[in-house]
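Field: COMPLEX_INPUT
Field: COMPONENT_COUNT = two
Field: RESIDUE_TOTAL = 849
Field: MODE = joint
Values follow.
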Amino acid sequence: MSKDIKIKKGLTIKLKGEAEKTLSSAPRSRTFAIRPSDFHLITPKMVVREDGKVQAGDTIFYSKSNEQLKFVSPVSGTLTKIERGAKRVITEIIIEADPQDTFKDFGILSPDSSSAEAIKTRLLESGCWPFIMQRPYAVIADTEQEPKAIFISALSTAPLANELDFSLKGKEKELQAAVTALSKLTIGQVHVGVGKSESSPFKGLKDISLHTISGPHPAGNVGTQINKISPVNKNEIVWTIAPQDLVIIGELLLTGKFNPERIIALAGSEVKTPKYYKTRIGSEAATFLYDSGLKDENVRVISGDVLTGKKISPKGHLGYYSNTVTVIPEGDDYEFFGWNKPVFDKISTSRALTFSWLTPNKKYDLDTNTNGEHRAFVVTGNYEEVFPLDIYPMQILKACMVKDLDAMEALGMYEVAPEDFALTEFVCVSKQPHQQIIRNGLDLMYKEIG
Amino acid sequence: MGLKQNLHKLKEKYKGTKMAPAFNALHTFLYTPNETTHSGSHVRSADDLKRTMNTVILALVPCLIFGIFNAGYQHYAAIDNTLRLDPLGNFFTWDNFILGAWTVLPLVIVSYGVGLGVEFIFAIIKKHEVEEGYLVTGMLVPLIVPIDIPLWMLAVAVIFGVVIGKEVFGGTGMNILNPALTIRAFLFFAYPTWMSGDKVWVHGAKAMTGQPDAISGETILGSLAANNEHVYSAWDMFWGFIPGSVGETSTFLIIIGALFLVFTKIGSWRIMLSAVVGAIVMGLIFNGVASAGWIQESSNFYGLMSEPFWHHLIIGSAAFAIVYMATDPVTASQTNRGKWFYGFFIGFIGILIRVFNPAYPEGFMLSILLMNVFAPTIDHYVIQGNIKKRMKRLKVKTA
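Field: COMPLEX_OUTPUT
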């Protein structure tokens, strides 16, 4: 099988405010937050009460449906508050940090000589398991099932994304430990997708199958790579892990400590000096936002990239899985005759008096305006231009909307995650919420079939 | 306080009331809303449905303007045949424009007024936003009717077309049949004496019937179907100096519109190209039949069958139908592969009906409506191909 994969369909969205490749340490956050909503479909069962003391790596809660699945504290400190929302659902767990971290010691585990069972137990007890996602359903991996393969994308093509070659530099040892350990948990291989550049820390690692990926976004989406390398069939499971989470797993195995450090890219047109910060899962975003400075008050802070991230408040906390924080202007303003006048400052895949096709290398300053109202699906053929998966995007979206489980299954629902539909959502003329439609569809299938 | 703030206040005031959809339709016409993204992608591309529809209207404007001049020109040329000796010189004149505007603009006004009225009423009753689909339909309708159609007839047809053709299915995006063609088909079947024959295609022809200075209003297709000779050269047909429905005569401007639609990626080039191929194939088959002598010259069909195949593309509504009607994304095939089949059969069946339908020598309205009905079936088989591939992959894995 060819190990070079060329993606032809897609769209690389070029935005202003790319993070400069200099690394600063963000000031230590006073509080840390864990949001259970980051862990889709997990209902937390608390272990630590309010005012309980925790070390980094101590379990704070586990999944109500699976006691093995533990979620741990990213720092040492005092659990000060459990925020609850409607129906007493836990929305946020706030930990006030100690000045210095103390770590729970899980002990060193050599990935080369350990058994699969030992590695799995270690990942579960240390709270590293939630880093492993599975497809189908795009949820945290089932602890009982063995995956047919594991996929890691070390290529970032999303707008303003964290450039992994930079942020993973010098982490080869941790990455090697993690992939070796993970390779024991699958019947198949650990597939790693990298870009064409020579500097990927994955080049030269053993126990992996390396694929060179090129092309526009979503070439860097792990879903695209799975579809091209080994698509998911019914009754099969694959795992996906983000490279920066591999570093945490690797460090755990090598040192026995759960040390969830993150090198995040702070980017976006509203950031004064966009650059990379060394911080920690759950930190206050303010620690780095105000270090770099924001240009305006009326901004949207996104934990993640502009296509798939979650909106957080500037006083909020970094999401569990995010390695990028993007700040763009809010677009809550009217635009006079916005629907018929020529457009030069926004991106469009059509040429309907929109002129972004003239300047393919220009960087844009997009805001959060929807640029139109929600409508029924009308235009056809435009999703296919940006959707490289061998799946009919509009048909699968419609199947999800009418909850036709048979059609969803037949059309390839096992292969997709909401993020795969971020670009079709971006270009959608009818402004349909594609990612939400797919998420709801996956949840329905999970409930009925999975 | 500017207009923007005042409108914003009014919007807040109308929020939740029955009039909200009507107000929002007018408001969003002036201003793109201040709506921001909530879930999923935080940024969105610049295109919305209004822009898409607006692009199609832009592509239709040359046809409308040409149609206005042509309405006047055909009237005067029918009275004084010598005008036809220099069509270009006698075409863009004030006389033509004034008479044309006097007859065509009422059609446009009735089409938009009645159609948007129905849309607004439905939006208010069903509490959804006024959708943009009718912007294009309303422009297409006056371009595909005979010039002398009574306005009340047009109004009745528009109401029928919008209600039965679209709103009963749930509005824009949900309809099965092309609304503009539903309106046209309603007119054709409800008032056949008005919609065909040799009188309605030139302004004044009907009114002057029986008078000493009566003029003919016959189209080329009508002449050919009656095995008569016609006086128009191929260039006349291409430029559009011929009688016909209001906006469909100029193949040249339709090609310009088609290029614009393809370039802006709003119209599907797959459908346009395959429909042209379909029409050529059928035309060649008939030419072959005629030249092989399988059909007598006295036959009813000889005139149309022996017409050179490429003439079929520049007479009648073929070009207009292929570019503006067949490409309606809602009623066409929705898969790229399906579009090839869909377009091909529109061209193929369009010419077939044109030749074999003596009562009404035009086939594209019926062929597009027919393929509208079959489009979901075509898509079904295309998608089955994708599903089968997935099943096969599964079998290989489990075997």
